[in-house]
Amino acid sequence: MNTDRRRINGPSGGTSAPLFVQAVKDVGYLQSLRPERTRGPNELRTICKLLQTSIVPSASGSAYLEIPMSRSTTTPTTLIKPSSALKLVCSIQGPKPLPRSVPYSPSLVLTTTVKFAPFASRTRRGYIRDAVERDLGVHLETALRGVIIGERWPKSGVEVVVTVLEGDEDGWWGDDELGAKGGGWGVLNVLAGCITVSSAAIADAGIDCVDIVSGGVAAIIRNPGSKKGNEVVRVLDPCFADHKDIVAACAVGYLAGRDEITEAWTKGNVGARGNELMEGATHAAVGSLSVLKEALLEAVEAKYQGQATVGKLSAKKTETTEDVDMSG
Amino acid sequence: MATKTANAAPALSFPRPIFAALSPHPFLQAHLSSQGQAKPPRANGRTAADFRTPSIKTGALTHCHGSAVVRVGGTSVVCGVRGEILRGEDVQTADVEVSAGNGEGDDTAEISGLRLLVPNVELSTGSTPLHIPGNAPSGYAQTLVTRLRSLLLSTRLIRARDLRILYTPPGVADEMEEEDSVPEVEIKGYWVLYIDTVFISLDGNALDAAWIAILAALASTRLPKAYFDEELEIVVCSDTPSEAQKLELRGLPIPSTFAVFEGQFEQEGEEYDGEESWVLNDPDAFEESVCREMVCVVVDGSEGMNKMAVKRIEKSGGGVVGKDIMKVLVKRSAERWQIVQGVLKEVE
Fold first, then answer.
1. Between chains, do B196 and A12 touch, taking CB under 8 Å as contact?
2. Range of the domain at B58
3. One Pfam match, by short name (chain A) (predicted)?
4. ipTM field
5. B78 pLDDT above the threshold of 50
6. pTM over 0.90
7. A138 C-beta neighbours (distance < 10 Å), count
8. A12, A21, A54, B58: which has the fewest C-beta neighbours closer than 10 Å?
């Protein structure tokens, strides 16, 4: 472990995450903890009321998105968490003028950063950005670049910063204990969440867009419960911890109003079902769009309600004092 | 004042936000020295002696042993405490005197020597325009985390015995009953607490908000029961929730930060009968940008309000606060302690 002299480091000998004895010694107990999808294949996780805008006062736009854990047990029998929730914060700084040293740009320069908090995943993450985070940043930038009307802000730059407070997992944690490899599926869910949350933040910042982009994920999984044993099913908005055998997955950034895709990221062996998978992801994106629209509408209503009352008050004031020329 | 005239005609005055951005110092001074009011409000609507009351939510993060989300006005902070295990054989005990007893002695050397507490802060999350991500932690962030760490250590908040993972070899335990000898207890490992604080938004007074978040997160921390497994010969944990242990915190130190705003008076001949400087409680980002002198008082009243202990006083940047003002500030901090303690009690 390399030491970072600008931060506080842990013991030089290194530390290890706690190891739960029941999970190590008793494979049957471990398997009993395996979560399963309780939703139908086309049913999305509910993010209703968990999308908020304007949470960072000093940023020009910001949003918070939370997709809760698929199941919530009131009295947990184990300290091991079955799966992870998805919690994202996005804040937007700008558009603001570029520094003089930067060469001329006729349109808005978009910079996207995705950073996982150290406590975002089951194993502790570092503070320095790793390859996965850079990769996510580039994908997010592609998704947003096609939406923003950049020509309206020449010589300006905007920073889109997404902090992942809690990220979706690549698979069930028990499979890691058993030595199975994670396929990096979780980043797809994180990307879809990043697209949705930054879209809300961009709308909050008042940056002109051609449409509202939203993210969605679909996956093809091998269904162990089926009679043939290896039948594959398409599921929308998968929680990868719920599925044992994932064949392929796809995340898209989708513009529902124009029926356009700005970003698609596919992993796994898609085979001949590419269209079906992509279509599923767009369906999931439309699902998150409806929540997105509701949240934005609420935010606008709250904003204009405030302005309307202020307007009324000032109107009253002018009435009582004297006539004022309101033109100009 | 300014807003009213801006409506009417292109007059020689600006709307408030532009006035504040163009000349922040006179803007705040105009607010504080406005006549006719007993307690003139600051630009943010609070009076000089007003604190922002924090709101706290704990246990929001899945993968932490303890966590808290704290909002103080426009500043919001997420803190997660995660315990990891430092194995006994990795402990470098060369320069640290370690005793396995349950004593209440001074265990700061043990905690700081072995680096059992690892606090860190992240400001570059778009929380403020001043900290753009992709850069190394700024001087401000480094100062902040160093202050938090020294506060954690000097207040001796965490007990080393909560972090020790002990093991009594079975053979020795049997003999003990017969011979009445002291059991040989070995330290097989330690819990290392990674205390990560992420700023969601920063509107001044980062230290107070971060510290309250750390306190609330530590208070909500439940570490699983850890023990040395003879069969596997490693330290393992039990996943039964009822066996998880709380951390027993020593006291409840709470910091209060003050900023001193010095007025500027250009006409020296002119008589000015008002105040020349103001001590502002719990400054926001705008006030921090125009104030140079900062005072931070850490008090702990957990032993009773009459025995309010001053744990630390930090002061930098100017000479306005003297002995008398400092007394007032300590008093204000004590009042603040009661409020914050009340909020912390509610969430527990």
1. no
2. 54-93+106-174+182-248
3. RNase_PH
4. 0.85
5. yes
6. no
7. 12
8. A12
